[in-house]
Specification:
alpha+beta; 43% helix
Length: 394
């Protein structure tokens, strides 16, 4: 099989040969040439050359020409905007213009009045910050609730915390003024001072217990006659127990009471030997006292009454004052039939009606004597006669 190019070349040569042969024949016989031309005009197709000129020739590698490179057209980008569903609300703000009638509600936006609305309770808002409410308690309550709420929810915003601070500064200033006036009134009107009749501070209790030295000594005598004993709970590995031990022994000598050391670890502290060492007392025996920390000092009064006088390192004055005050309260409760104990803690009362004690003041008109414990009642309660001496027990 011939190659296409060779076949075309051969065909072209044949056509040329035929054309040359026809031309030669026409020159030799003109008549036959005219006849032939007439017949050819009637029967022969259009000459190839004219048809090829009318139609553009095909081009490409088959006709020894490189094909033209077609430019690729970039696809057009079509942007399709999805329609907004009819059910979704519009995100644009809607401005509603209220009618100008007297019954129309107030507008939500704060009026541009130079901050005057911030000074009115009904129109004040958190953006105003703290404003002095004057004498309007409800106004300050509104500011308090909102400002403190914002501070607790937004503690990292300086302006929010500052607004709450300004409110608290206003409150503390008012409280300071009230405290100063409170003290002034209390000094000017002694009947308003509860510490005059009932000293509650450590110094007040100590001073009240020493107003009448005889009463204090008498109470110690009553405790001794009733068989009172001091118990000092400790541990050998407790440094505070070693520091408090000398103070406790000194107080026991002043009261004239026996002091027994109860070591919770079974080892008595130095200075507690013989009968003063309670190493034979087991933890089960003292468990009801619930001694959770040491050192601890207790006063034991028969039968089975335990009064805690101090825990930790305490001064001699405090122990003595607590002994007088607590023992008097215990005896007053027993004398008046009051029972508020919990099984371990004894019944006590500090009501001045039942527990009269030295107060350091005496009525100016001399209508009554200075308050003091009822010696006759206490002696009678302990089993002595009303007029008998403490050492003359029945």
């Amino acid at each position: 099989m011939l190659h296409p190019r060779r076949a075309i070349t051969t065909l072209a040569l044949s056509v040329c040969a035929m054309a040359l042969s026809g031309l030669a024949a026409a020159q030799s016989d003109p008549e036959s040439t005219s006849d032939t031309q007439t017949a050819s005009a009637q029967t022969s197709p259009v000459a190839p050359s004219s048809s090829l000129n009318d139609v553009p020739a095909r081009q490409g590698w088959f006709w020894y020409l490189d094909p033209k490179k077609e430019k690729k057209k970039e696809p057009k980008t079509i942007v399709v905007t999805p329609p907004t569903p009819a059910s979704e609300p519009s995100t644009q703000a809607v401005v509603i213009i209220a009618p100008s009638s007297a019954s129309a509600p107030l507008a939500a936006a704060a009026p541009d009045d130079g901050g005057k609305h911030c000074k009115v309770k009904d129109t004040w808002e958190s953006k105003c910050g703290f404003v002095d409410p004057g004498n309007d308690f409800d106004f300050q309550a509104k500011e308090r609730d909102i400002l403190l709420q914002q501070m607790s929810l937004q503690p990292d915003k300086p302006e929010v915390v500052e607004a709450a601070q300004r409110y608290m500064k206003w409150v503390v200033t008012k409280a300071s003024m009230a405290a100063n006036m409170w003290y002034f009134n209390m000094v000017q009107h002694p009947d308003l001072d509860p510490t005059v009749q009932n000293p509650i501070s450590e110094i007040g209790i100590a001073l009240a217990s020493r107003v009448d030295k005889a009463n204090q000594v008498e109470i110690f005598d009553l405790i001794r006659q009733e068989g009172g004993v001091l118990f000092y709970f400790s541990r050998d590995d407790c440094d505070y127990c070693h520091e408090q031990a000398p103070n406790t022994r000194r107080v026991a000598r002043m009261m004239g009471l026996q002091l027994i050391n109860v070591p919770l670890d079974g080892k008595c502290l130095p200075g507690f030997e013989g009968d003063n060492c309670g190493s034979n007392i087991t933890n089960d025996q003292v468990a009801p006292l619930n001694v959770a920390v040491v050192p601890a000092l207790y006063l034991y009064v028969p039968d089975n009454t335990w009064i805690r006088l101090g825990t930790g390192v305490v001064t001699d004055t405090t122990v003595i004052a607590n002994t007088v005050n607590f023992f008097s309260a215990y005896r007053s409760a027993v004398l008046n039939g009051l029972d508020n104990s919990d099984g371990v803690r004894p019944s006590v009362t500090f009501d001045p009606k039942f527990n009269a004690k030295p107060t350091g003041v005496t009525p100016a008109d001399g209508s009554s004597q200075a308050s003091a414990p009822d010696r006759s009642k206490m002696l009678e309660l302990l089993g002595y006669g009303a007029n008998a001496a403490p050492n003359a027990k029945k």
